[in-house]
Design brief:
heterodimer; A: mainly alpha; two-stranded antiparallel ribbon; 25 helices; 15 strands; B: 161 residues; alpha+beta; Ubiquitin Conjugating Enzyme; 4 helices; UBQ-conjugating_AS (chain B); UBC (chain B)
Chain lengths: 639, 161
């Protein structure tokens, strides 16, 4: 225990110094920083941006062409937010705006503009391009006719193309093509007519869906394909636009159609995705090239915009997908059975042996008695084969190599399963811990804050630090959770990286535990006290300090992991040659590439500490050891 | 268009009856070449004789088509199958199911039995080889217990035959 305390102390010193490092190298440049560092700060900033572009854009995105349209916007909004939340009204409004734009520029009716936009995935630019490149081809592709396909017949009576009943010309309707169909076939017969003509059918009519009674309702009830509805004549292809839908569909169907139209705006776009939270109707537009994919919706659900899983920074989407798959995979059960059980030699049911001797008796109805080691019948065993706890036959056979293969497989499966269980348990416990913290945060905001403000006679605005602490806890639990998935997939042979990772993770976790403890337990004293506590201000300082320290730990962890712990190699190499600044930077545990050259102040102070006290940095894990220690406190590497 | 096979067993709606009667009259006046409607008193199931077109692989052969109409015909497509033995054709399965888009996704209520027949004959006539679809055995096995071809999710990829 003693040594652990030491460790904490040492870390606290380090972390205070790192604060500078983080803020000057952080993504969201604060103005003060810019002012202080002047030119240098700005250089940093632009460097950051270029760097990120390289990383994020080229890999996952192939619509850089699109992006260049709004490149300026992206640049401007980048420093604030990488995404926009769109409510249904926002989407409708955008659709309206786009339709109006197209309709005005191309001088075509709104419904035609809508059809065009749908065809070109709601990209105003693409509609313009294609239309002006070759209007005729575009018109043909979407079924916008300039003149009727057929001449309107001159007869008084014409047969509807679907029901073949004769109607007078003016009671039939058509799309732009003039293929005529009767109202009943377009929109279905009103139930009134049915009840008048066939009163006995009425009951049945109500039961069966009217949906299937007409061309339009059949199509709408068939799904979003109705958005590209064409004239019923198979040789025609004239588009049936929203104007006709509005005129001919029932209220319910009209609503459905509008819903599909709304959805198409999001689902056809490569920049907008629906929030995956159940019951949430918002969509999130992501500004391409703005770094982290983590977004959070107005419903407070935060998710990765790229893979739609819950937010998982700093772990990449691929690892998360593997991990999620693994957690749900039935194969883990199989692995367990394989590792921990053997089939009964007689009935073949898997048997787990968790204790006791080698004399096994299978459960009824089998009841076969056998030896666990050699799986032979127990009747052949006894004192002469080694008694209850050994089996000479097995030992002899093992010497000859008979069991090796199966045993080794079993052993390996068991090890890998234990390893997985280790990570999974920690992943899952952070998950539930986060859920609890989230609930606590909400309770804090809705109930406790008011009470605390009363008890301690503090205005609520002065108690923000508590909310911030809880928000930090929730966020840290999330990060910590995903680091266990990261750890599971960290290659076993990369021992150095693994050690650094475990060190960083351990630090972060310890910091978080202190913060969580303070926010959960110590706060209770102040909440339940009878009047204002004298030391409440001390508590404020402590909690705010812990919040900021923990934030730093996690920022370091996140940055190190996002870099793939790439500093490990370079630092290990550079440590021996340049012991001063690089060495000191090593203590900032996973200094990120982005922060390169940005933390002059921080570096200097650390270097001084190092020089003055004679502390040394471990080559292997970068831990800063006291001068007297002959081996690394963390990894026991010799100095 | 989606439609459970159950609906095809429901009685025809009034609209469907009217339309089918008109189609039948039109058929009797002007039947499509190579087809013969076998007269029954069941308006909901038509049995049609198909004669392979002269000069094609199926010349001189006769097959039977069975057309079942759903309650909401023509808004829903009819179910059309060959009564086994079905012609050997790359798009016709041995259980009589036909892989032809207008019978499923591309059905339009402006089509008729007569226009379906013409499409099927054209499909037969353009076949260069008499053989079953590659996945015939697998498909037919999955269609046990009289499953309707309308429940199959067809994937139309070959527009040559």
């Amino acid at each position: 225990m003693e040594s652990e305390d030491d460790m904490h102390d040492a870390n606290e010193i380090a972390s205070v110094e790192e604060e500078d490092d983080y803020y000057s190298g952080g993504e969201d440049e604060e103005e003060e920083d810019m002012d202080e560092e002047g030119e240098a700060g700005e250089d940093d900033y632009s460097y950051d941006y270029a760097d990120e572009d390289d990383d994020d854009d080229t890999g996952d995105y192939d619509f850089i062409a699109n992006y260049s349209d709004d490149g300026d916007d992206a640049l401007a909004s980048r420093s604030q937010k990488s995404f926009t939340i769109l409510k249904e009204e926002d989407i409708e409004q955008r659709q309206e705006e786009d339709i109006t734009k197209i309709s005005t520029v191309l001088s075509i009716p709104r419904e035609a503009a809508c059809i065009l936009l749908r065809r070109y995935n709601w990209s105003v630019n693409n509609v313009h391009e294609e239309w002006f490149a070759n209007e005729e081809v575009v018109r043909k592709a979407v079924g916008l006719l300039e003149k009727p396909f057929v001449k309107l017949p001159n007869f008084k009576e014409v047969a509807c193309g679907i029901c073949f009943e004769n109607y007078s010309c003016d009671s039939l309707r058509s799309a732009a093509c003039a293929h005529l169909f009767c109202d009943a076939c377009w929109k279905g017969r009103g139930s009134r007519i049915f009840s008048f003509r066939f009163p006995s059918f009425l009951g049945e009519l109500k039961l069966c869906k009217r949906a299937t009674n007409s061309y339009i309702s059949t199509s709408i009830n068939d799904g979003p394909g109705c958005l590209t509805l064409r004239c019923p004549d198979p040789s025609c292809g004239a588009a049936v636009g929203q104007d006709m839908i509005d005129m001919l569909a029932s209220d319910e169907d009209r609503k459905k159609y509008r819903r599909y139209l709304l959805r198409s705006y999001v689902e056809d776009s490569r920049k907008i995705k629906w929030c995956p939270a159940p019951g949430c109707d918002s969509a999130v537009e992501y500004v391409v090239g703005s770094g982290s994919y983590d977004v959070s919706c107005s419903c407070s659900h935060s998710f990765c915009w790229n893979c739609i899983e819950e937010a998982h920074r700093p772990v990449d989407c691929e690892t998360v997908a593997k991990w999620v798959m693994k957690n749900s995979a039935e194969s883990e059960n199989m692995n367990w059975i394989l590792a921990n059980s053997k089939p009964c030699p007689k009935c073949k049911r898997p048997i787990e042996k968790n204790q006791g001797c080698m004399h096994m008796t299978c459960t009824p109805p089998c009841k076969f008695e056998f030896c666990w080691l050699c799986l032979g019948a127990w009747s052949d065993h006894g004192e002469r084969t080694g008694g209850f706890y050994a089996c000479n036959r097995y030992e002899a056979a093992k010497q000859e190599g008979v069991y090796d293969e199966a045993e080794r497989r079993r052993e390996m499966a068991k090890n890998s399963l234990e390893r997985y269980t280790h990570y999974y348990e920690r992943w899952a416990s952070n998950q539930s811990s986060r859920q609890k913290a989230l609930a606590d945060l909400q309770q804090m905001q809705s109930i406790h804050l008011e009470k605390l403000s009363e008890v301690q006679s503090q205005p609520e605005s002065q108690l923000k630090f508590i909310i911030e602490a809880w928000q930090q806890i929730v966020e840290c639990r999330r990060v910590l959770k995903w680091t266990y998935a990261y750890g599971y997939y960290l290659p076993e042979q990369e021992a150095t990286k693994k050690k650094v990772f475990e060190y960083l993770q351990g630090e972060a976790e310890a910091g978080l535990e202190r913060l969580h403890q303070c926010a959960e337990k110590e706060l209770m004293n102040y909440l339940n006290s009878d009047g204002p506590s004298k030391d409440f201000n001390d508590f404020r300082t402590k909690l705010a300090g812990l919040t900021s320290v923990t934030r730093n730990y996690f920022e370091n962890l996140v940055r190190a992991l996002e870099n793939g712990l790439s500093d490990v190699d370079s630092e290990a190499a550079s440590i021996n040659t340049t012991t001063s600044s690089k060495n000191a930077a090593g203590t900032s545990k996973g200094k990120s590439g982005r922060g390169k050259g940005s933390s002059k102040a921080g570096n200097t102070s650390v270097r001084n500490t190092a020089d003055d006290s004679g502390n040394w940095t471990c080559d292997q894990c970068t831990y800063m050891n006291v001068s007297s220690a002959p081996t690394c406190h963390m990894c026991h590497q010799r100095r | 268009m989606t439609s459970p096979s159950a609906s095809s067993r429901k009685a025809l709606s009034k609209i469907a009856c009217n339309r089918l009667q008109k189609e039948l009259v039109e058929w009797q006046v002007n039947p499509p070449t190579g087809f013969k409607h076998k007269v029954t008193d069941n308006l909901q199931r038509w049995v049609i004789e198909v004669n392979g077109a002269p000069g094609t692989l199926y010349a001189g052969e006769t097959y039977q088509l069975q057309v079942d109409f759903p309650e909401h015909y023509p808004m829903e497509a009819p179910q059309v199958i060959f009564v086994p033995p079905a012609p050997l054709h790359p798009h016709i399965y041995s259980n009589g199911h036909i892989c032809l888009d207008i019978l499923y996704d591309s059905w339009s209520p402006a089509m008729t039995v007569s226009s379906i027949c013409i499409s099927i004959l054209s499909m037969l006539s353009s076949s260069p080889v008499k053989q079953r679809p590659a996945d015939n055995d697998r498909y037919v096995k999955n269609c046990k217990n009289g499953r309707s071809p309308k429940e199959t999710r067809w994937w139309f990829h070959d527009d040559k035959v």
